[in-house]
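User: Here's a protein and a ligand (alpha-L-arabinofuranose). What would the complex look like?
Assistant: Let me lay out the input and then the predicted complex.
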Amino acid sequence: MTILMTRAALLISAFGFFLVASSSAQSTPEASPAPSLVIDLAAPKKAVSPYLYGAMTEEINHSYDGGLYGELIRNRAFNEDTSRPWMWSVVAGEGSQARIALDSAHPLNPSLPNSLRVDVLSASDERPAGIMNPGYWGVPIFSKTKYRLVVYGKAEAGYAGSGKISLESNDGATVYAAADVEGFSSEWKRHEFALTTDDLAAATKGRLTIRVNKPGTLWLGFVSLFPPTWEDRENGNRKDIMQLLADLKPSFLRFPGGNYLQGDTIASRFDWKKTLGDVAQRPGHRGPWGYYSSDGMGLLEFLQWSEDIGAEPVLAVYAGCSLRREVVPAGPELEPYVQDALDEIEYIIGPADSNWGARRAADGHPEPFKLNYVEIGNEDWLDRTRSYEGRYRQFHDAIKARYPHLKLIATTGVKERMPDLIDEHIYRDPWQLRAESTRYDNYDRQGPKIFVGEWAAREQTPTTSFQAALGDAAWLTGLERNSDIVHFACYAPLLVNINPKAVQWKANLIGFDALGAYGSPTYYVQKIFAANMGTEIVKVEGAAIPEENWQPPADRNGKMPPARRLPTLHYSATCDDKTGMLYLKVVNSAPVASEVKLSFKGSRMASEADFTVLKANPADTNSIEAPLKIVPQAVKTDKASNDFTHTFPPHSITVLAARYAKTP
Ligand code: AHR
């Protein structure tokens, strides 16, 4: 094991370069001749990557616990803090009394070291006493909704009390749904209840309470509450966030991280074998983003989630490098981790009669999942011991020997083996990202393909403004134009619980609280870009494209680079000969409209065309209060032709979808 660097140093080196003061445009565009775009369907074309638009996910910003994962009880297994019953408190009143403590003498099972001991000192039918949990910044109470509650509990021998479980307001004055509990046993017993709310005027946030009517001692080992979930899965996902994800139609899902894959330490990496099976037996683990993960979102749940939204899994396997100075060197010490990755792949794609395929079948999914891409580690350029070359080689050789069809992704450059793809992470400010839109124009086409495994214009928290969306969209035109080499791209992070206490990372794609969810303006950019993709890249020649001055931010040494000119129009085009559809994307970042002459060569264009437009003030954004402030507008025209002029509004992102017939 080798000492690398502290987490703090690591964060600075990982992000410091990208987080230098935001740059900004210095002037409005200058007058210039009318801009024009020649879209040439006759020019040689390269194939578009069918995978280009995907999604990346990890447990950050309470993406799963307190987010997508349906569980509503925080610290459901009493294991998130071993020193106190965190998130649980006593509910008692005048004439009733109780106290609570963690109890390691009465664990529910070997994976969960503590139960919650509840000593009810005084209680009666009129004045019951017990405990409550406020969930993740409020338990959502929806109208006419059936919740599923699972409680593992026991009581001292001979306990004759009965209890009530309620979903109620935070002051306890309003009970929205309740169930009675009777027949306490002195052995651990699993109880399941349905809690159904009536017709409520509006959804609200509340808490879960469990009260009893007689003094005595009780233990709780696991308390879990789920609302209705996507596909009605017992251990499933929130419907509203899943709907946003399904609407995005990502071609792939990169998981489980990110730093979450690596963990702060080797012991706290994403140890997939511990995330399988009965949720009441999953130990969970502390993630690198400052909170405990229940691991309710385990490997099987990641795979089902991918399947549910029609995305192909891109699996990242732990490759021996954790964030806090812990690296397993290549060689015999690394072998167990290589074997772990092989087992993980077998769990995903092995036949149901293979060792780990059988485990998957026992977990409820006999059919193998789809898997074509495996990433070895995450951001291994951070490994100052420079051991990735050897670690990559070891994983590469073992995986290719057993699964030759799998394409492997390296997280930084390696020389001894040729990876199929290299993962690049591009976090910039909106202007920098615009400037980066040419990044791949002259890239080496002979080397590995590119996986932009994380990218974003970072300027606002928890989700970004339209200013960032303009930078993001301009950047995406560069990826589309180069999608012969840029095979995959995914914005990161994907999800954020917008409660300030839940956020670790600014600039996220989808925001939510306990009651609702929304997409950032960039969410809609990705949605309309992905929905309007051809199969081949079409050459677009721009002339007289307006520009503005731009002062790039200081580098990491504080040195100011020279000012640059930055185009205010970015564009790309793709077409599909089979469907006869052409898609042109134009981003106008300028505060003024741009009248652009569009000429289509090598085809006869239909007069009817569809424009999808996103436009807004740069400072505007979507939010939980105004989730649909910035959404695409559809406009039809019957005035398209091979040569026509279109006015792109100020600060706008436009997709033109038009039918064409090839001309000889
Ligand atoms: O997306 C947030 C973090 O940024 C990821 O966990 C890590 O891979 C990157 O540095």
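Summary: The two ends are 65 Å apart (CA to CA).
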